[in-house]
Amino acid sequence: MPGRVEKYLLERIKAEGSIHITLVDPEKVTPPQASRIAENSKTSGTSAIMVGGSTFVFPAHLDAVVKAIRRTVKIPTILFPNNITGISRHADAIWFMSLLNSIDPYFLIGAQILGAPLVKKYGLEPIPMGYIIVGDGGTAGIVGKAIPVPYNKPELVAAHALAGQYLGMHFIYLEGGSGAKNPVPPEMIRTVKHFVDIPLIVGGGIRTKEQALTAASAGADVIVTGNIIESTDAKQKVSEIIDGIKGNRS
Ligand code: 1GP
Description:
- This protein has helices at 4-16, 31-44, 59-72, 105-122, 138-143, 154-166, 186-195, 209-218, 234-247; strands spanning 19-24, 48-51, 77-79, 93-99, 125-133, 171-175, 200-203, 222-225.
- With 250 residues, the chain is an alpha/beta fold.
- An eight-stranded parallel β-barrel has the order 1-2-3-4-5-6-7-8, surrounded by eight helices.
- The protein starts with a helix and ends with a helix.
- The mean pLDDT is 95.
- The structure holds SN-glycerol-1-phosphate.
- SN-glycerol-1-phosphate (1GP) is lined by residues 23, 175, 178-180, 203-206, 224-227.
């Protein structure tokens, strides 16, 4: 049975076609900055705020960032953890994710075993998600000990995604790596979408309205952007990206 946040995401996808989620890397922001980003993104039409990054963050700082966001906006705050240190009791939900192309069992199931009791204790809504790192993989690929699937092997990614669906995951995330030079190509998104029935999240290197529209038209149900919120014209950038996604509906 999907929980409250998952239901909300599915309803928004159903109503809007493709949706946008803003990613806040707690390592890069202060709590007031996180609030501002959340507020601006919400005004621009983002559906939820994800909080997480690939490297190190102090639990107390993560808590402060999540709290600041939750105080500011009503849209859900969803944790995007790279390890058990990415869990905060103050969020609404957590992507309960397995890095499907990691060669390290820790990222496939080890961290999840350690984190599951905390998720339960904190009353966080777990949303099962299969995470696949593609392209050059970026920092997430190194930290997660992944063998990133090259952009010219879409059928291999589709096999990973289908395995995730058959294992019971509710979402698949194609990760091009934060700040990737080239976002996940439309051919790869189309191929995965053709194979799986569960919603597809795409992120990594999406910076323009055109790139967002390309990903949405190829079948991305959720588009995640992180880096663009660091630019000086962040508010406008997020609005443009969301306009791009909406272009898919017209
Ligand atoms: C990273 O997919 C996300 O995990 C977002 O990437 O920071 O490049 O937008 P960007």
